## 1
Amino acid sequence: MDLKNKRILITAGPTWVPIDTVRVISNIATGATGILLAERFVRQGAKVTLLLGPAEDCRVNKTINLKRFRFYAELKEKAVKEVRSGSYDVIIHSAAVSDFTPIKRRRVKITSKKPLNIRLVPLPKIVDIMRRVAPRAKLVMFKLEPGISDNALVKRAKEAQEKAGADMVIANKIEPYRAFIIYEKGIISVKSKRALAYNLINLL
């Protein structure tokens, strides 16, 4: 695929789900991988839209169409709106999306004077929704599973890829960083985000 003028959608960063009017559940994602990918794809002449969550460092190339979100519901709405246009050639879903939400959001600030139990329920997978809405786009998804063996990581990533109908899956670990690019012809192992970007661009 020649990437010049190809339209690429990238999701990146953490997502929030509200507990009450001031508190949220989040994760430790920084959005660094998605920002790096966006920068590298722009250098290849691609037209990139970046949906970026509440990450602290959001300095990106001015040619990138940057759209911010904070909450899961905002990411879901923006992602579906973007892919529904039918004009994206590649979708790279690297955002660390919240898997659970409180079954009931409190409409006031919860008092901190007594113990609190919060019942969580699973959220729909945004990657599944994007695949249904844009069945022809190249879909690259991410699977983060720290604390397990490489073989187990690759196995779980392949299962997630098959379930989502993705064309490619990036199985990654943190501390130290390691990723496996799993595609139709094999697996490429990388040990840095720069190497990940380089190989992903070459594969696409």
## 2
Amino acid sequence: MTENEIAKIIFDKAFDIHTKFGPGLFKSVYEKLLVYKLKKDGFQVEK
């Protein structure tokens, strides 16, 4: 998988989260949701 493919997946997940929950959450909440969704899809994520 290339860097561009990984970046697209991350961007799409972040966009989905923002679309579903909207603006107004703390940055840390968005971060935790993104980490959760990426791990759920099999990515290894370090914060």
## 3
Amino acid sequence: MAKTENNGTVKVRLVKGLAGSQARHRLSVRALGLNRLNDTRELKDSPQVRGLINKVGYLVRVEE
């Protein structure tokens, strides 16, 4: 997992559409604050956020 050294945040981008994905995974993407394709959010790096990212790793990309 890429992590920025400056402020303990992680940048997440939605790279795949949600059509055909499981309902739980769609909810996880919403919990990350991602709504549309190519949406990017900078989130606090915490175990909860890492768990959500791991669950939907096939839909999102972690960027530096």
## 4
Amino acid sequence: MTTRRRLYLTLGLGLAGTVAWQLLFPHPEHVIYWFHRVPGFDVLLGLAGAFLLVWLPKTLGEYFLQRGEDYYER
């Protein structure tokens, strides 16, 4: 097994375990807003936020910051 595959397997199992923990053991005493009653909402919100923190700057950088390969040859 390669180290990259081992890393992906570890991250996947960790993510699956975290989601399972949130779904099986919710904390109803900490419910303040309606979305805190949805099992696993905090996990999904965190994943969406992390995805946006990586994807949004990468996309904006590709469109606005990077130059074409023939930029100096014009």
